[in-house]
Amino acid sequence: MTVKASVSLSDQQDAFARRLVEQGRFSSVSAVVQQGLELLREQTEMKEAETAALRALIEERRKGPFLDEDESSRKIEAIIAAKKAQYGL
């Protein structure tokens, strides 16, 4: 199902969209706008998923043991050393 909507574009946006149509990349200005909205939807969903994953990771870490600064530094140095060894550095 499609919905007709009136959209205002700046002169620069209109020129860009028309240039894409003239180049044959899109069949119409409407198709350009639809693609732009689709990209924005995908980007928004990706950011929401990343935020949810980060929140879950933070919550998981909050439930785990607390590391003091020295212990944390030792663990980080060990991870860095392992990665360097993995790459032969």
TrEMBL record:
It comes from the Bacteria. One of its GO terms (biological process) is regulation of DNA-templated transcription. The keyword Transmembrane helix does not apply. InterPro entries: ParD (IPR022789), ParD_sf (IPR038296), Ribbon_hlx_hlx (IPR010985). Keywords: Toxin-antitoxin system. NCBIfam families: antidote_CC2985. This is Antitoxin ParD1/3/4. It comes from Allorhizobium taibaishanense.
